[in-house]
Amino acid sequence: MTDWVLRLIDAGGYWGIGFLMVLENVFPPIPSELIMGIGGIRVGQGRMAMEWLLLAGTVGTTVGNYFWYLVGHILGFARLKPLVDRYGRWATLEWKDVEALDRLFGKYGQIVVFVFRFMPAFRTMVSLPAGLFRMGHVRFLLWTAAGALIWNVILAYAGYFLGKAFRNIDAYLGPVTTAFIVAAVIAYLWRLATWRPAAPRS
Fold first, then answer.
1. Where does it live in the cell (predicted)?
2. Distance (Å, rounded) from C-alpha 29 to C-alpha 124?
3. Which residues touch 93 (CB under 8 Å, ≥6 apart)?
4. Hey, where are the domains in the chain?
């Protein structure tokens, strides 16, 4: 996977970064840490400009998150309960959790979207309830872009300083990325195996 990401970034430049960030948020097997980190490395190597990298990454992130927002907006809150009742086990989710999210978004929707942009497990997931609970389109886009920009700055500059220090860092990216993905899969499987629905009230 890392080789494919590297080739796409090197061939597509900023368009490649933007496309990968959209893809990462719609189908998230590729971590944004990898994409923006490589972009920052390329800046450190003098092959990209930081401002255009951040623009491409932030636009891509916002578009990818807006996809899931629209899915939630079209699905609607009323149609969600049968899906949660049937498939909630796989998301380790119960209807009371959905109701709690509804209350949370009603009070603090924009803050939730902004803060969750910094949480690896929830960066994309938060877009679906934002649409389900009818957060305004403009508010969602603005707060998503703001959070994404800050997160991308952190990732890109981390890659930038690595790229400045290690010109041949590409050789180390594959094992690190593989370890990151394996850890994420193990964390999900552990939560799935240990999750139990709350006992029904008598």
1. Cell membrane
2. 12
3. 84
4. 2-194
The C-alpha atoms of residue 42 and residue 13 are separated, in whole angstroms, by 10
Residue 21 to residue 18: CA distance in whole angstroms: 5
User: Model confidence at 50, in pLDDT bands (50, 70, 90)?
Assistant: very high
The total number of residues shown for the chain amounts to 202
What residues contact residue 68 under an 8 Å CB cut-off, 6+ apart? 25, 26, 124, 127, 128, 131
pLDDT, one tens digit per residue, over 135-156 is: 888 988 998 899 889 989 988 9
Q: Are 128 and 71 in contact (CB under 8 A)?
A: yes
Phi and psi, residue 142, nearest 5°: -65, -45
Residue 173 reports pLDDT greater than 60: no
What is the Cα 51 distance to its own chain's centre? Answer: 21
Of 140, 152, 165, 127, residue with least CA distance to 55: 152
CA distance 147 to 175: 28
Record the tokens describing residue 16, joined without a space: 């490649």
